[in-house]
Amino acid sequence: MRVGIVGGTGKMGAFFKKVWEAEGHQVQVSGRNTACTSVDLARSSDMVVVSVPIRRTVEVIDNIAPILTEGQIFCDLTSLKMKPVEAMLRSSAEVIGLHPMFGPTVASLRGQTVIACPERCSPDTEQAVLGTFINQGARVIRATPEGHDRMMAVIQGLTHFSTLCLAESMRRTGIDIVTALRCTSPVYRIEMGVIGRLLGQDPDLYADILTLNPFIPPVIEELRQALQNLEEVVRRGDQESFRSFFLRNAEAFACDRERATRETDAIIEFLVNS
Questions:
Q1: What is the pTM of this model?
Q2: Rounded Cα gap, residues 23 and 25, in angstroms
Q3: Are the C-beta atoms of 61 and 40 separated by less than 8 Å?
Q4: Which one of 51, 78, 90, 169 is CB 3.0 to 4.6 Å from 13, fit for a cystine?
Q5: CA 115 – CA 235 distance, rounded (Å)
Q6: Which residues are CB-neighbours of 128 under 8 A, at least 6 positions away?
Q7: Taking Cα atoms as reference points, which of 201, 217, 228, 100 lies closest to residue 157?
Q8: C-alpha span between 273 and 269 (Å, rounded)
Q9: Residue of 96, 39, 51, 52 whose CA lies nearest to 73
Q10: Count of C-beta atoms within a 10 Å radius of residue 113
Q11: pLDDT tens digits for 92-135?
């Protein structure tokens, strides 16, 4: 296929340019400083992929959607799916929303997860697009756009929000981070590493993830309630209530505790020996 990536000069667009080129496709890109424009790609590509910041995605889609025809495929690589897919469906093209659950610094698709929202496409088109990811070792999970955004409110929204709150809380205590890191064992270095990794990324990306998903505010309210409940238990020094709090969550995560222990043990072993 002739694949056109709008925003293909960015990090994620450049990553997927290599992905499709590895499958033998001809790939062209457009960006702020390229002679080729998004309109040019829309007119000349078999598949058009939008890879721009979340808050610009619908605008970019709306600009090229009227150009696309029934014989083309329209995709995006955005962390939200409802509004981008809705916008792509205003075109005449086949539509598959895509969300790579990783950043562009990974070495390859092997072991990574891509969530796909095939909304208007033939089985052959779905296989052609998603088969590329599977061929290169990725796991593809299918979802509806609404189901995706509801899940991301927890998977991304809750985890990023709580990580940022943890960083803010540590900063507000006035603790010296360098000294704190020297006091950590490997398991706490993993938790500190999650904070450091997030804070080393683009703040605009996380702003979009947290502010543009309509399902995140109710999830944050659940976090607020959880914090309040646990705070009351801790302030009372109520060991039995704490035990109940702990065990009901241990039961909820029973399906994953063994995997989590095994994988974090492997990470700890690596840190100890590195």
A1: 0.92
A2: 6
A3: no
A4: 51
A5: 42
A6: 1
A7: 217
A8: 6
A9: 96
A10: 14
A11: 999 999 999 999 999 999 999 999 999 999 999 999 999 999 99
Residue 58 in tokens: 């619908």
> What whole-number distance in Å separates Cα of residue 209 and Cα of residue 99?
12
Domain spans, the chain: 2-143, 147-273
Q: DSSP 3-state assignment of 112?
A: coil
At CB < 8 A and 24+ separation, what contacts does 115-118 make? 115/81, 115/140, 115/141, 115/142, 115/143, 115/148, 116/140, 116/141, 116/142, 116/143, 117/81, 117/85, 117/142, 117/143, 117/144, 117/145, 117/148, 118/142
Amino acid 15 reads F
Cα–Cα distance for residue pair 17/27, rounded to 1 Å: 6
What homologous superfamily is domain 2-143 in, according to CATH? NAD(P)-binding Rossmann-like Domain (3.40.50.720)
